[in-house]
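Researcher: Batch entry, complex prediction.
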Amino acid sequence: MSERQLIQGNEACARAALAAGCTFFGGYPISPSSEIAELLARELPARGGVFIQMEDELASMGAVLGASLGGRRAMTATSGPGFTLMQEHLGYASLAEIPCVVVDVMRGGPSTGLPTSPAQGDVMQARWGSHGDRATVAVAPGDVQEVYTLTIEAFRLAETLRTPVAVLYDEVIGHMREGVVLHEPTSEELGRRSGPRGPFSPDFLPYEPDEKGVARVPDFGRGYRFHVTGLMHDERGYPTSDHTKVEQLLARLERKVDAAVDAVAPELYRLEDAKIVVVAYGIVARTARAAVDALRAEGVPAGLLRTRLLWPIPAAALTDVIGRADLVVVAEMNRGQWAFEVERLAGRHVQLAPYLRAGGSVITAEELVGHVLRVSTKGARV
Amino acid sequence: MSGVNGSNGKAPAGTSAARLVAGNLVVVGVGGQGVILASNLVSQVLLDAGYDVKKSEVHGMSQRGGTVVSHVRFGPEVHSVMVEPGSAEWIVAFEWEEGLRSLSYLKPNGVALVSTERRIPPAAMLDHRAQSLEYPALGEVPFGVFALDTFAVAGDAAAAVPAIAQTVLLGALSVLLPFPVEAWQAAIDAWVPRKALAGNLSAFERGRALAPEVRAAAAAARAVAPRLEKIAPSASLSPAAQNGVNPSRDGAAERLLPMVRIERSWCKGCDICVAMCPEKCLVLDELDVAVFARPERCTGCQLCALLCPDLAMDVFRVPADELADWLPAYEEDRVRTTADPR
Amino acid sequence: MGIDVVSRPPADVPQGDAVASEARDDHALAAARDDAWPGASAEKRFLRYGMMPHMLCPGCGHGIVLDAMLRALARRYETLDDVAFVAGIGCSSRVVGYVDACTLHTTHGRPLTFATGLKLARPDLEVVVVTGDGDGLSIGGNHLIHAARRNIDLTCVLFNNEIYGMTGGQLAPTTIPGAYTSTSPKGNHEQPFDAARLVEAAGATFVARAQSFRTRDFEEIFLRALEHEGFSFVEVMTDCTEYFGRTNRLGNGADLLFSQARADVAIEADLAGRPTLQEVPARPVRPVMEMGVIHESRRQTLEEAMGLVEARS
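Model: Structure tokens for the complex:
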């Protein structure tokens, strides 16, 4: 199956899940993500998988984690309000190291907000939505094809790193139709879940990390008897309040997700000699690319860094590009969430002029060009 | 006194605390002993004396018997609520092991007033490994530890409410702090429930009456050794184990006698088995641990094991001529656990 | 059920601490104990010895219920390799940590959601949910009625001690009218849930109520709940000595157990004697409650409907 098919972003996401070996979906209806659940409700049972519509998003996420511990590749899909309800269990999954994929098709917020309009307002929620310091992986596809490939990659990261992985894209990408190649992933692209080294023995340690810092938790019902808890735990999985052990655990959980940075590299567009760097992701990166082309046509040395990974932040690539720039414009459809992160990484010599919009419409290339010309000439005069 | 306070700056206005500028106190114990109440009470005295007082509490998840620690810091202005290790002038410990465990907070010239009451919190036994909670070995117990058999000192004052016994330690502490006895009595009056007021005031007085010893301990902090007296096993609880045969039993049953084995480290002394046993075979010993005291009366009904919330009891039958082998071994175990401080 | 006969002289028996300090972990401890204490009753092989003694208060009824659950499991299973315990947050939920099985200590109120996912992922596993009255009926009440509605083949045991124990004795949705708690200082003025009737109305196909005091009855009921195909719900009345008992001056653990004995009626009895909001008693008394199997029926389970297991007639 290698010819291009005209499909919707949400459908590409569901197709990717099936291709990635997902056999469990637990979800709750919410716009604009519902097409994912609807497609999987048809397709999963036909393939021996399980689809269940739960009573709310807390329950959805709980069911996903239960199924994952039962050995399934499991996922859910939601939008901002549902993502909020899932945060408690996302924190649980991070700490207990239970793999899962959560798709958040972002809509305008806060609260019920703009149910059918696009936004990128859940970026910080994906990072800090749960209480405590939780390590996070979040990918941000920029078109329908990438929804397919990055959803497959999200499953690989979730399984190999034993952590929840969020797929964040906005309503426009979710409902946009594009020609997409639905390739069958290779076994490397699928990845394998980290598991125990040998058979069950008296000194079995389910939370002993492997060489990549990932716990060796087995699936339930495979002859291993062990304890999984949302309390801070030692390598046996039993609760501990030993401060040193807790520090070590949190540090390991944070360290292990750094592997995602190498796996999901940013796209660098016309950056070789760029003095003006536009940073964008998701749908905004598409208009930003058009804006960069338009600026180049005017003789302005602009380039685009399109990140495909929101968390952990690809700090090395960003600082490298920012370090050579005079002006950095982070364009995103919120009140400045990733822009704050970029600001943290930028040195004092760089002029920062984010272009932010949270009203529910997509940032256009024209307004971005106008913004860059405005701030760069102003900057030149200063 | 002066050696304990270690400072002689300006005192807060309107108090008699002429030489006491600031200080750190750590109160420790086990849930149910009144640690929080006691530290509230001390804080009240300090507050009334015009200090800025900060008090923190670390206690378990409301389980009775868990470790409880309260830090009290006071001075003209206090910011951090936590007492740093090695910086407490005073430690008041309502429980012996918790007292030993908290000694790292003590200043070199500080004084620890430690009750000899022993109630090992469940967490200390959680995985049966010594390193799960760190206790200094007895030989390493350093300096300034003033051990007090609070129950003996309190006497009948604590008859109604056992927790009152620990108020003796507050009486002793009051000797080391430059506040008038009326301030302490007022704080006790303000914090203690009415029905326990008289007992507490009385226990406080008895602790305060130890002033000479407490002052001596403070003055020669390093010279005082712990005075833990060995808790001797009581002969009155010895099971009548010599021939352990129930004369009412007949036939086949006579050859197999019921044995109740109690896992001492799991028993929390709730008294259910003692109350439920139809034959009254079980008693609680001086450490509040169930003992199979009258095996000759046991019918093997298993009610004790079925209703033991601690899963600490097993009932089984042993050949009559072997019962005696079980009981002495069991008794030995009891004595060993009782006498050995760990 | 007779009691075990042990004919091994105890001379070479390592005692208590000796076993514990030599053994490296709980599995080895369990093995050592199997050898060391021939008198240990059969269900204790399912305990995680390294975790004992448990963290429950003296006299807490939850330990009695745990032992009874283990006894029932010992009658049904050789090992607990294929038994998963899923629990929420609270004193009741902590007991799963002492069971040597696949144990999952989840978030507050949500154990049924995890269990639903796990059971659908692995229908061959025996999945037991342990929850409390606050966990299962308050924060997790929605999940409880939906699990019952779906008739998923889980066994849910709700430990009802009528109070929030772990957080310090606050009002629960099961606290009886008039009872004092730390958040109802003048006595509870709210009507409690009848958990068993609630779950029955929601569609559970096995509903029972039992007491920690009548521990053998509970053991039998729990065994039947395990065997039942479909959603099984057992509400077990247990005692919080430290908060409910003390705050309401109901005595110690033994007193509370005896009070259970006065508060049960056979299933046939009517419920007219139950206190209602209009007649709040001056001092709380235990309401008379029906005990035993309240409802048992057969209807297609969720797994059967989904085709995950073969439909049984």
